[in-house]
Design brief:
The protein has a three-stranded antiparallel beta sheet, with no helix packed on it. The protein has a two-stranded antiparallel sheet with strand order 3-4. Helix content is 44%, strand content 12%. The model has no long low-confidence stretch (mean pLDDT 88). It has helices at 27-43, 87-100, 104-130, and strands spanning 53-56, 59-62, 65-66, 69-70, 80-83.
């Protein structure tokens, strides 16, 4: 196969044009999407993927994470347990609270950490290019 006859420059294909502004997702959108992924992983136990939950008998222990850190779900607790039969409903309820802004302060703090880490990495890359 001559792959050079199949591929096209990204700039020639709609949706891949260089310079196209990428709209960053909000922290709440990231967490909501991640919760959906956790529900999918729970419903398909053999599917590959990083899980935030652990099934132990009839209970499921889990955390909700953003920016490599768990969110405080109940008081200062980041790891909680629910009956297995209610896991999906609880996850959807937490997702709804995330979307309503209940975890805004925690997500904002996580976003600030992400921005700081990104800026530090950018500075490091620039310094390494000079060498």
């Amino acid at each position: 196969m001559d792959w050079t006859k199949i591929v096209k420059p990204a700039s020639a294909v709609e949706g891949f044009a260089k310079g196209k502004a990428r709209v960053p997702k909000t922290a709440a959108e990231v967490v909501a999407n991640a919760i959906d992924k956790q529900i999918a992983l729970f419903n398909k136990p053999k599917e590959e993927g990083r899980r935030w939950f652990e099934v132990n008998g009839e209970n499921v222990g889990f955390t909700i994470r953003y920016a490599n850190s768990p969110l405080k779900l109940v008081g200062e607790e980041t790891h909680v347990v629910v009956p297995k039969a209610q896991f999906v409903d609880v996850m959807n309820a937490i997702k709804a609270d995330v979307e309503k802004g209940k975890f805004k302060a925690q997500l904002d703090a996580g976003e600030a950490a992400v921005r700081q880490r990104s800026a530090t990495m950018s500075q490091t890359r620039k310094a390494n290019k000079k060498d």
